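Model: Ready when you are.
Researcher: Fold this.
Model:
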Amino acid sequence: LTSNLGSQFLVDPELSWDEKERAVNETVRQAFKPEFVNRLDDIVVFSALSQEDDFNVRHQLDNRQLAELFLWDEATFLKKTEGSAIRRIGYHRWLRNLAIGLGNSKDPAAISVLKQRQDIDEPMVREHIEWALKELSAEC
């Protein structure tokens, strides 16, 4: 079970961590019948999400189209993912994942984008581009 019950206490700067945990636990116990609460093995309280810049979306990656991202060259990938955990997967796995996303998109326009990368030297990426093209051809 995952819930946001009691999350308002987690952002209260006046409360200590112990007070926050007690408030969340009490909120859960008030929200559910005892028969249900007794079946819970544990209540895990997580810290509120950080507002630090390190955790913000970089380079508006959340507002990009898959096709646009798929056409990035490696230098652009490295520049735009600087400081981001996405960079850890590397450029070729990035392209593979985007090819899968494009193949699942049911967007006929993705076919021309995928074809632009069909001759890539990386076999894993090429295999997923071929898969995506087959998926889109079957859909369209």
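Researcher: Now this one.
Model:
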Amino acid sequence: MGYKINLFIIVYLLTIILFKDKLACQTFYLTSAPGTFYSLDLNNQLCGGCSLAPVGGISYPGDGLSFGPDGNLYLLAPPSIYQIDLSTGNWGAPIFTCPTPIPLMTGILSVGGGIFYTMPWGNANSDLLYKWDIGLGIVSVVGATGFNSEGELTMFGGEIYYQSKNQLSGTLSIIHLDPITPSNSQEVITYDLFDPIIGLTASPVCNSLLGIETYTHKIVLINLIDGARTFICNLAPVIAMWISSPLEFAPPPPCMITLDLDCDDSSGATDADYNSPDFDCLTNGVDIADEDTRMMYDAIISEMTIHITGFVPDAPFELLFMTGSVAGINVSGSGTDMITLSNAGGAKSTDFKDALRLVVYNNISNYPTGGLRTVEVQFTTESGAMSNVATAFIQVNELQRVPVDLGPDQQQCDGLTTIFDAGNPGESYSWSTGQHSQTITTGTSGQYIVTVSNGI
């Protein structure tokens, strides 16, 4: 039994290493308007932006791009299909030209064996799927999908997807296409009509397609579970259009339920962790996650917990606070050492990330004890799967105390005044009366408190 467990651990670790390598090294290819062919590398496990390099000029960006299982890259320029030379961007003579008149097409998918699929351009208001059979020399209608095409077709994990536009509802959708019986095609996710995707391809991330936003020219991950989009990089001023990669015929990527508080490790923390800004008594709370928090999941996220753990010398004065609200997220425990974020219905992973970035650590003791604090974050999905525990490290700095002595309690006769002197000339003062001078004069009985700061 021990041998089997060790072997499993070795295989599991090897899978993680191979998965990370795959994220880091995959090359995509895209065309742009007015006409350039590019290679695109996604850096640092999709956390460090993109490297875009021109391969060559092309006379026309085409109307669709698709790798085939043969490793060749094909471009649609109706009524013809061309093969692109990956080293130059040249496409030469067509490998096939449709022998009969067809509508203007947008998007192409090569499935091997000389078979290609296309759909009419969105403005054609057509939901028909066309099959191109180069071997037989024909282009035929397979059937109606029920969803008008608006963009590229792609293969991911052995399944075909494309974008559809519904003018009546004012929405766009990702459609799961059934190429055998197109009428069985199903809507997967829906999003706003003003956030269209033009280029669409497979990604190295579980349950996620890679797309090019039409108006912003951003590369984004599009999650097929909740529709969340994760920004990867901005290609502007390049007007990118169609995109494809050999990943379209790769096995489905492993679904690893993961949380990373600082995807590009810009805070200096490694792996899934985050180094928060330093905290001291002059700080009004510090965040516990970076802007590029990354989550991978197998189902809708149901809950996230954020908990102060380990060395907590100033308990119960070391607390977590929610500084705002996010629609669809319920919050419990704000002002305690543990906050729970719950899905109130319809919340996406992006909503949980937005809520997480509103959580701050604060130490409200009069004199915070110096040392390293840890805040642990973990989420659970509706399947019951739990992510790794990601940790925010917070260095609490103990500032030098400024000696203040207002003297003993004083008694004074009616009509007379008393002067209180906080000492420490030249420092900053904050009295309970609202005054900010070194000394105050008063003839009213009561308690007088002063905070003196040297600004360090």
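Researcher: Key takeaway?
Model: DSSP finds two helices and 35 strands in the chain.
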